[in-house]
Amino acid sequence: MKCCAEHVFMIRKGIYFVIAFMVFSQTSLLAQQMAVGSWESHFSYAEGRHLALGNGTVFCAAVHGLFSVKENIVEVMDKNRGLSGVSISALNFFDEAQLLVIGYEEGIIDLVYKDHIVSIQTISNIEMITSKAINDFVSRGDYIYLSTDMGIALLDLTTEEISDFYSEIGPDGGMVSIQDLFIHNDSLFAVSSEGIMVADLNTNLFDFNNWVIYPETSIFKSTSIFEISDSLAVLNEDYLFMKSNEVWDTLLLLPEVMNQVISTNQNIYFLSDQGVYEMVERVVVPLIQERFSSGQDLIVNGEEFWIADGDLGLIHITKDSDQQVRPNGPKYDNISAMDIIGDDFYVFHAPDPDTSFTETIEGYSVFSGDQWEVREIEGFNNISGAVQFRGQLFLSSHGHGLYDYAGAKLLTDPELKNAWITDMWSTDDFLWFTNYMSQAPLGSYDGESFSFLSSDQFGTTTPLSLNGSSENVLWIKNSSIEGYGVIAFDPSKNLIWGLGPSSNTPSTAVNDIEVNRDDELWMATKGGPAYFIDASFISEEAQAYVPYFENEVLFKDENVTAVAFDGGDRLWLGSERGLWAFSKKLQTQMYHFTSENSFLPSNTILELAYDGQSGVLFVLTEEGLVSYQTNSSAPLSSNSQVTIYPNPITASYDGDLIISGIVGDALIKFATVEGIILYETQANGSTASWDLIKFNGERLLNGIYLVFVTDLNGLEKWVGKFAIVR
Q1: Is the peptide bond before 648 cis (omega within 30 degrees of 0)?
Q2: Is 278 exposed, middle or buried (0-12, 13-18, 19+ CB in 10 A)?
Q3: Rounded to an integer, what distance in angstroms lies between the CA atom of residue 182 and that of residue 204?
Q4: Are 516 and 569 in contact, with CB atoms under 8 Å apart?
Q5: In sequence order, what DSSP letters do the residues of 403-424 get, joined into one string?
Q6: pLDDT at site 483
C-alpha cells in the first residue's frame, strides 16, 4: 500500500484553511500486466456519502464506490471483491452479527461477512416502475428492518432472505416511501413521505390499520429519527422536534442547516456542511468549524471524528491533525471526454456545452502507469480535451480556447477569445479544432498562425467532436441544437459534405464516430450503427451501410451510444443494454457484457476509449469509469518486441498465455518440442492469447513448448518457447 502526504491550501466559500492531505492508492493490476479478461474500476472517491464503523474499520461509500480504512491502510471494495453494485444508498455495521450491510439505489442488498458476501436481489427484482432505493437499516435480534422507497422490508439473517415486505401501510393502504427507521419500546417508528409513522412490532405490520401517522409531522420534512434521554426526536434541516405525550413539538431552532444527526454513548452530534456540533443540556454547541467542505455523514469514535465529505471524500479529524483520506482515482466521476496520448490516459470534466455556460470546473485527471493524478492550470478551467501536435501537448477548454502545455501559455487569436473548443485532431501539418457556438466553427493551427472556416461554409455553429481518416479527411459530429449528424471536410480539396436524408443512415441522431484500420467511418446512432466504406473519399453520392450479423441488421432501431475498435480491428459497441464485441468483419459475437454478468457498473455505456499500447479498453458508463483488458494491441511492423507472459506458467496462475509485441495480425502456432502442432490462432493486432486448451480439448500438461510466429506474407518470422511448471 502506497501513501504520500502533502499540505494543500483549500478555499471554500471565502474561508481559508490548511488540511493535511493524504491520498492512498490501491495496487493496480495494470502495473502488473492485467490478466486478459480482467476488469478494474476507476471511480472518484471525492464525493463521500455514507459511513459505517465496525471492528476498528471505517467504511466510506462515495457516490460510486466503497472503500475501507483501518490503521492507515485503505482498501477499495468493488465487484472484484464480490460486491453487487456501485451506487450505495445505505450503509451500516451490526456488531452483534459482525456484519456490514450495504443497500443500493437499485434495491440490491449485500451482506458482507468476514469471509464471504451474500447478495439479496428480491427488492430489485420487483417489477415496478418506481425507485427501489434502500435508505436505512435497523436490527432486532436476527432481523433487520429496511426502509425503502417502496415501504419496509424485513430481512431474516438466519435464512438470508427477505421474509416480509410491508408496502401498503400508508393512509387507506397506500404505498409510502420510508427514509429512516428507529425501534423504541417494541415499536417501529418510521420517517415516511406522509410524516412520522409508528406500529407495535407485536402486531400485524401488513395491516395499515395498525400503523399510526402523527398528522402534525406531515409538514416536518424530517430526515432522521433518534433518541434523546429516552425520548424520541426527529431532525429536519432547521429544527429539532421531540415527542411528548403522543404529540410532536418543536424542541429548538438549529443554528444552521444540519445534514445529519447521530447518537453515540448518550451524546448527540450534528453535522452541517462545514461544522460538527454537540448537544449539551439541550443547547447545540459547535465543536469543529470550517475544517471540511460538505459534510454528509459522521462517525464519532472517542476523540476521533470521521466525516464523509461531498467534495473531499473522507476527512479524519483528531486532536492533532486533519487528514483527507481516499483511494487513488480521477477527480470526478462526471467525465465529459477521454483521450489517450502515449502511455497516458486523460479524462476531462468540462460541463456539457449544450446545457451549461456558467459552470466552472477546475482541473482534469490523468492515469499514468497505475496511478491517477489530478492536474490544474491556473486560469484555464473547463478543460475539454488533449492532443499531441508535433510532439507537444495541447489542451482545449470550454470558454478559454487553446493552451500550449509545454510552453505554458494560452494561444491567442481574436476568434479564440472565450472560445468553447469541444475537440481537437492533429495531422503532420495542422492542429484542427472544433469551435462551439461560433461563426468560425472549425479552426486550424500550423504552429504559428490560425485559420478558420466560417459557419456559412461549414453549415453549423455547434460542432462537438472530431475524427480523421488515413488521408486526413475530417469527420465532425454535430450538436443536437442544430440537429444531430456528421459533417465531412477534405482540406486538400476544400470539399465539405453533410449527412442528409439520402445518406441511408438509420438515424441522423449520431452519438459517436470512429475510423477503423480499414479506413471505414463508423457511426453509433439512435437507430443503430452504420458505416461509410471509405472515410477518405467524400462525394455528394456518399452512402452509408448498415452492418449485418447472422443475416439480420445489427441493432436495428436500437440506440447505440458508443463505438470503438481494438488492435485487431474488432468492433466494440456500447448501448443501453451493455457492451458488445464482434470479430473483424462481424463473423462472430465475442462478448456481451452487462452489469449482471460482468464488472460493468451500469448497462448504459456513454463512451469508449481504446489504448493500443496496453490493450486496455476504457468504458465510461452512467455509473462511472471501468477498464477491460483485451487480448489485443496496436499492430507492429515487426517481431522486435516479443514477450511471452507468464513464463514459466506456475500453479498459482490460471489465466491465458499472452504473447505480445509480435508483428501485426500475425499467425501463431503452438507446438511440442518434437514439432507437433497443438493449437494455432491469429493475433489481434500485435497481441494473442491462448487458454492452453489443445485442438482435441485437452489441457496442456507440464513441459516445454514452442511458439512459431509469422506475418501474413510468411516473411517476418519468430520462434520462442515457454514452460508449464505446475
Answers
A1: yes
A2: middle
A3: 18
A4: yes
A5: EETTTTEE---GGGTT-EEEEE
A6: 66
Cβ 195 vs Cβ 201: under 8 Å:
no
- The helix or strand, by DSSP H or E, that contains position 458, with its residue range, turns out to be helix 455-458
Q: What phi and psi, each to the nearest 5 degrees, are found at residue 41? A: -90, 150
pLDDT for 328-363, tens place per residue?
999 999 999 999 999 999 999 999 887 776 789 999
Within 8 A by CB and 6+ apart from 501, the residues are 508
pLDDT digits (tens, 9 = 90+) for 703-715: 999 999 999 999 9
Set of cell numbers at residue 399: 470558454
Determine phi and psi for 502, rounding to 5 degrees: -85, 5
Instruction: Please say whether the dihedral angle defined by the alpha carbons of residues 315, 316, 317 and 323, taken in this order, is positive or negative.
Output: negative
List pLDDT tens digits, range 225-262: 999 888 899 998 889 999 988 889 888 899 999 999 99
The confidence score (pLDDT) of residue 28 equals 31
Instruction: Tell me the C-alpha distance between 223 and 239, whole Å.
Output: 11
Compute CA distances 466 → 423, 437, 508, 511, whole Å: 6, 15, 17, 12
Distance CA 380, CA 396 (A): 9
Cβ-contact 661, 641 below 8 angstroms: yes
CA nearest neighbour of 335 among 314, 321, 349, 345: 349
Nearest to 613 by CA among 366, 368, 365: 368
DSSP classification of residue 632: -
Is residue 102 within 8 Å of residue 118, measured between CB atoms?
Answer: no
Residue 25: its pLDDT value, please?
32
pTM for this predicted structure: 0.91
- Mention every residue, 6+ apart, whose C-beta is less than 8 A from residue 721: 673, 704, 705, 706, 707
- Which domains does the chain show, CATH number per domain? 337-629 (2.130.10.10), 643-725 (2.60.40.1930)
Quick one: pLDDT at residue 32? 41
d(CA 562, CA 524): 6
**Half-sphere exposure at residue 703, Cβ-oriented, CA atoms within 13 angstroms:** 11
Which residues sit opposite 680 in a β-bridge?
669
Residue 267: half-sphere exposure toward Cβ, Cα within 13 Å: 15
* Cell numbers representing residue 191 in the block: 420517517
Residues of the chain with pLDDT under 50: 1-32
Cell of 592: 456481451
E strands present in 157-266: 161-166, 178-184, 187-192, 195-200, 212-213, 224-228, 231-235, 239-244, 247-253, 260-264
Q: Is the dihedral of CA 190, 192, 194, 196 positive or negative?
A: positive
